[in-house]
Specification:
332 residues; alpha/beta; Alpha-Beta Plaits; TIM Barrel; 2 domains; 8-stranded parallel β-barrel; 14 strands
Amino acid sequence: MVIIMKPDAPKEIIEKIERKMESLGCQVHISEGENHTIMGLVGDTTRIDPSQIEANDYVDRLVRIQHPFKLANKIFHPKKTVVTVDGIEIGGDEITVIAGPCSVESEEQLMTIARAVKASGAKFLRGGAFKPRTSPYSFQGMGEEGLKLLQKAKAETGMPIVTEIMDQEQFDMVCHYTDILQIGARNMQNFSLLKQAGKCNKPVLLKRGLSATIEELLMAAEYIMSEGNTNVILCERGIRTFETYTRNTLDLSAIPAIKELSHLPVIVDPSHAAGKWRMVEPLSKAAIAVGADGLIIEVHHQPEMALSDGAQSLKPEKFDGLMKAVNKIAAI
């Protein structure tokens, strides 16, 4: 339920209604808009008598939220959320590109790629230290040593770090090193992990699950936000369909759909969507054209030697060309 106050509503009236709603067992989230103050109620609203609220001269109207997600809902929070890390915005007026290798493999590999993507205009450095792989025999990442290398790359380039958190046991360690916690597709409905991410002060990049609906993605975000962390970035990375030519099927319609439903920023991962480096640039252009706030792209200077996902990784010169192309579309 959302209470929309009239533009001239005094602060003391708003506070009085807030106290009343809290006494009825609801959490109250207040959002200050240009013309209206919006009071979002979370909890059991069955005890609230709508007629009593609407009888207040300073209440414009009452809106019931039909979707099960509340905190992530655009009705609840009309102003778009902008996540800021080290002064860099995700969801602001400019697109934000996160780039780097699928896995941290060595200091030489990471530093080479970090310098290249920085020079081309990437704002964040991605790199996996713990890698969830389909096969237990595949490279699983360097662990904490990889996190230390990411920190070293940040110290040189100034780019904040995005890396994946796999489970609760490693949570504190990964939080210590990273700037944005990535929760991967396979963990999108790991509710214990989502709740723990909601209790930390680091922004969370939440990837859509392999077969998850848009509503399920937003409900996963709700788990994080319900614990107090509202800095959530959604990521469309392709879903599983009957098509086998590409690794996944990029759901471009998810971007405008999420923009209609939610205030949270949404970025696109064309690398995992296609699984083919040749398709990364056209999909990136399309993602920006339909309104994505940014991209997360895999880059490797020697993809033929990569320990994971070399087939979908762009070489630095290809990434540089992609950046020039998507910036032109973003300007339009």
